[in-house]
Amino acid sequence: MKLAIQLAYRNLMGAGLKTWLNVGILAFTFLLIVFYNGFMDGWNAQAMRDSVAYEFGEGHYYHKDYDPKDPFSIKDGHGIIQVDNLTNVVPILIRQGSVYPDGRMMPVLLKGIPAKQSILDLPTSYLQSDEETIPAIIGKRFAKASRIQEGDDVTIRWRDQNGSFDAVTIHIAKVFDCDVPTVDAGQIWLPLYPFRSLTGLDYQSSMFVINKEFDREQYPDWNYKSQEELLKPLKMVVDSKKAGGSIMYVLLLGIALLAIFDTQVLSIFRRQKEIGTYVSLGMTRSQVVKLFTVEGAMYSIMAVIAAIIVGVPLFYLISQSGITIPQSSQTTSLSISEVVYPKFTLSLIATMILLVVLAATMVSYLPSRKIAKMDPVQALKGKIQ
Amino acid sequence: MIAFLLKGILRDRNRSLLPIIIVAIGVMLTVMLTGYIKGILGDVVRQSARFETGHMKVVTQAYFDNMAQLPNDLALDEVAALSQNLSEHYPDVDWVQRIKFGGLIDVLDDQGNSRGQGPVAGLSFELYSGAGSEPKRLELSNSLVEGVLPQASNEILMSYKFADKLDLALGDEVSYLGSTMNESMAFSIFKIVGFIRFGVPQMDEGTIICDVEDAKVILDMDDASSEILGFLPKDRYDKKRSYEIADQFNVSYQETDDEFKPIMLPLAEQGELKSLIASAENMSFIMMAIFLFAMSIVLWNTGLLAGLRRYKEFGIRLALGESKGHIYRSFTLEAVMVGIIGTVIGTLIGVSFIWYLQVYGLDISGMMEQVESSLMLPTRLTAQVTPELFFIGFIPGLFAMVLGNMLSGIGIYKRETASLFKELEA
Amino acid sequence: MNTLYFRILLIGIAIYFQQGIDAQTTTAMDPVYILEQVDANMSAKNRIIHAKMTVHGRRKSRTIESKSYSVGRLKSYSEYLAPAREKGTKMLKLDNRLWIYAPSTDRTIQLSGHMLRQSVLGSDLSYEDMMEDRSLLELYDAKLIGEETVNGRETWVLELRAKVDGVSYTKRKSWIDQERFVPLKEELYAKSGQLLKMIELSEVSRVDGRWFPQKMVYKDMLKKGKGTEFYIVSIQFNASIPDHYFTKAILKS
Amino acid sequence: MKNETIITIKNLVKRYPEGDTEFTALQDINLEFCRGEFAGVVGPSGSGKTTLLNIIGSLDSPTAGSVHVLGHEIGSLSHRESAALRNKDIGFIFQVYNLLPVYTVFENVEFALMLQKIKASERKKAVMQALEWVGLADKHKKKVTKLSGGEGQRVAIARAMVKRPALVIADEPTANLDAANAHAILKMMKKLNTELNTTFLFSTHDEKVMTYLDRIIHLEDGKLIKDDIQSPKEYSL
Known about the structure:
The complex is a heterotetramer. Chain B is 53% helix and 19% strand. Chain B is of the alpha+beta class.
């Protein structure tokens, strides 16, 4: 094997331009595949990270009567959090209500959150205000849908726990830009403590978000949903995108492999005499087959090396600067940010190297098998057609 | 001359078969990738067209201004006349009516008391009432968990999780309570004939699908519809055409100030699809350029090698008194023929494959964890046969190949006649 | 989306009118006395109201005609007479349960429990609004805060503040005709003091020896729009209403 | 030692399919060669010289008859065994040298030893020694494509000799060389033949070659016409 590798290496280096063309194409394909996967992984990671940062934290506890999927459960789904240490939780109180921007009525979810929390990345510091008007923050999607702008004063209306209507004018202190539609669309974030007293629900919460330090034991009135469970649907979508993309790189890889195959077939034809010579020098045919296979496979190894030389700085740059995604694609329900930072993991690259090398070895082996059937005498004469 | 060369190509398998196969495979891959990229990048557009926007959408001005709230009270009226008008002016376009609505679903127990209730979003399409284009377009059958599509009045599909929650079986009847276009009470009984999976949690939690004619009856929308969607022939999006039609249509209502006048929105003008489409086009162009470049290099390589293999033959031909120029030209001509044959074969195979994908799709659900076929999250890959597929393969297949051959053929001039002879002896 | 909302209001009015039957004599300026006089004028043990409601939509207006029967505060039954589409739709309210019957489907939908609290079909009004059945005197403390002229008539201005929990509007202001003891205008406020709704009552005429406003205009103050109008076609007080009108059987009769 | 028989050919027949019929390349050949012979097979083109040598070199196998080379029955060797035989005991020299074009002089010669898994340091010694024999030690770093014809053939000789085989088969080794180079090469081979007691077997129709041979075997149409032992000659080596 060592001999085959040495020989193959020398043969390839000796072949010059032709080798570099093949290596170039394969390296390019390799880079593209790694890039695509890295992009998807980066997106995935980012979507997950953002979802965790803005919405999930380390997990959610829902009041046993509150089911986030069931709007009917909002009314009674709240209780007092019986946790020793509240520093590791962000309590959220959810109420249904309406907002009246410019005389139009829109149903909305009102969510109370402590202004001073630090578990979620929501800009809740804007919820601190000395003014009489209650400050509120909304996401850019809702701002757009409702045509409410930062700085606007709008009236919201809800019913308190006893059913009495209540309405106040709130001040939109901040329209925040985040990639997680589920903390944005159709909801208004309000400071928890005034919101609790407004709704007559002092000390009550519909749910709470925890951080890593939180002691995740059982709390009888609260149902726990881990971060992992919460992230599942997101993962599903990314998986589906990945599967779709794989077709593309199968085709791309196909082209690179075609280049190798093509080179192999012709080089076996052109190097008949060489093959004959190897045989006359005492190589077995299988050794010669191995030599040519290794030679083909070596394209892929050199391609990987070339790709690494080009790719490492390139991908490093890309993963630092990110890729700007056109604004429009953000309107989908998926969490996708303006800038996606591709994520290139070692396992991704290792898998891809394996894939490319194996595939290249395969296509090199196929034409090389022909050598085993060659008559060395004819080969020496260069007479095999 | 051509006939003579063709004979050579066809008889000498070394001269023809391998290069043709390689050109064909390369061209096939090019065509497939082009079609696939077109398909995948068009997917967002297609998905949006299917469910949301059509290729063109007609709504009232007022509805448009409040689109986010699905204000059926601002729906189009006199739609029969409007539809007729549209069909007459644009007979090639498939004009379909759709209504979305909200409401409450109530399930009775044996005693006639309510056993369960839940809010629903209703989607209505021309399922059995129309020309049959909608069920196909929406691929509803693929997303059915169980049951069949509505065939008759008041039959509905229900999202499977919602049905689960309400403990409903096929054939069960549910009451619907909602509000009509005129904001009065809407009442109906629906029979569940199928369970459907949307793949989007919110939709799976509470959605029903019924025929648009049922929706009209229930919602008091006789001769009214929230939206009329237009789909271009074969459901193929054509940006230019959609703008043309929309502009033409809107001009005829230019004079009216009525806030309920119909306006037509081409797909790209709805939501933020415009920039999305632009970026999809850019992406697809870049991908194609990269790919064509790679493929061209491969086939160029093939061309080069093909030339190298034939020095001996050139020696013989020189010996027979052929001029170098003549050999070079015939060699090039041969490459052209091989290129054409390979490209045609590759294009045919590639286009067939893309056509297959376009018509039948490729199920990729196996490649995904936990994803089953659903309406909003397609598990089938699709592609699109576009006119350019038929010529794009010629760039690598013919031009790159011939150029590679021509370059390698320059060796004919470089070499001394004598050395060619010598190789002949060897 | 506002269908039920208006339907509910219609019933709400009926409830409003039937409150405070036992009038007592107190001093003329006692706001409680004023309220009692209003109730004496406008309520009875039971009532049958034939009314028309005009909803001014953004696009067109629509009139619904209904006949409702009510006894006490807990029982009410209404049937819709027009338009044709609505004809035969019946609603029955008993305690905190509500049934809606649609002849087209021959089905009854019962709304109760947490559903009642739910916004109706995404609207801002819940089914529970229909359930508000306690009398104003029971719910509110009244205070006379002044006198004003409304449409050329002298009125007492009463401020009503909720004295129990669970009242939809924790504060109301009523303008009561000083001569006829009929409200001419009402404002409904949120807990925070925000004005939510305004009702204007007019065309006061004599019915069965009582003064009664024939026309009422409701307006949601947070929303743009022309509001909703009610016309009383006829009203009967203390008629005999058979008991079966307040059973579920009536729905399918 | 000198008289030890290393090649025994009995009733050798070789036929090739040719179209629908068969072409008989060798017919009923009986020969013996001893260690240290410097022998040649001569005859016109198509007489079967190369075929005979290829069979002896285990590149080809007999249709009938037996060929024993260095104790191996050629017809019954497996691929692996025949490869091993060639690798260890037989060196080939070709008319067109068949050097491996992308390698240097040193690497070409080294190749045969690499197959035998000889250590790099020993390989180096052996290769340089072989290059000394052919007078190319100073050019060991050159690419073989940069060599002249005579130098190329000397590399081929070095490659054949480096493993010190018992038998060297040289198929028309001088056909592509001018007279001066041909003589130089032949002298070199004769010297190696004498010094290392290596058996050389030529196929040739070059008169120059024949003058060096100890024994000339004439073939015509696949038949052995004449087996002519020459009187030993003296050369100025």
